[in-house]
């Protein structure tokens, strides 16, 4: 028993100390890859899906998705088009529509969360600078983004509306 206690004490001495937690290390890390993947999926689906699905994607990318700086190269588009065509052929129509809705909702949520995070960082800077007028304006913008985040997600009904 004593040897086991000594071994555990030795292991505790060997283990590295926990990393120090600072406000900078607590900053949320945005997963732009996952948001970019959703955008890439929706972009390529516009090339391979049936016209009804394409209309829905185009409409909601323009009206429902916040501004972003994602770009899709022609190489990426070509590589994925063939793969997506094969997948769509095997999937039921409802599954494709649900997948598109899921990607639209996911992309919108991630981009709004990213905007909110940037605004929060800006607000902290304004607070430290003591600029109350700019802080008030920034808070109003943040409230608008928070309200958008609380809006209902898209549902399968968007396809019925387009029919």
Provide a descriptive summary of the structure in words.
The structure is a single chain. The protein is an all-alpha fold. The protein has one domain (32-162). 75% of the residues lie in helices and 0% in strands. It is built from 7 helices and no strands. The longest helix has 37 residues, at 93-129. 12% of the residues are buried. Residues 18-31 have low confidence and may be disordered.
Instruction: State the end-to-end CA separation.
Output: 74 Å
Would you identify the regions where 5 or more consecutive residues have pLDDT less than 50? 18-31
Strand content: under 5%
Number of helices: 7
Total beta strands: 0
Total of domains: 1
Range of helix content: over 70%
Largest sheet: none
Q: Overall mean pLDDT score?
A: 83
Give the topology string: H per helix, E per strand: HHHHHHH
Which class best fits the helix and strand makeup?
Answer: mainly alpha
Q: What value does the Rg take, in angstroms?
A: 23 Å
Shape: flat
Question: How are the elements arranged and paired?
Answer:
Layout: H1 2-14, H2 32-48, H3 51-63, H4 74-90, H5 93-129, H6 132-150, H7 157-162
Helix pairs in contact: 2-3, 2-4, 2-5, 5-6
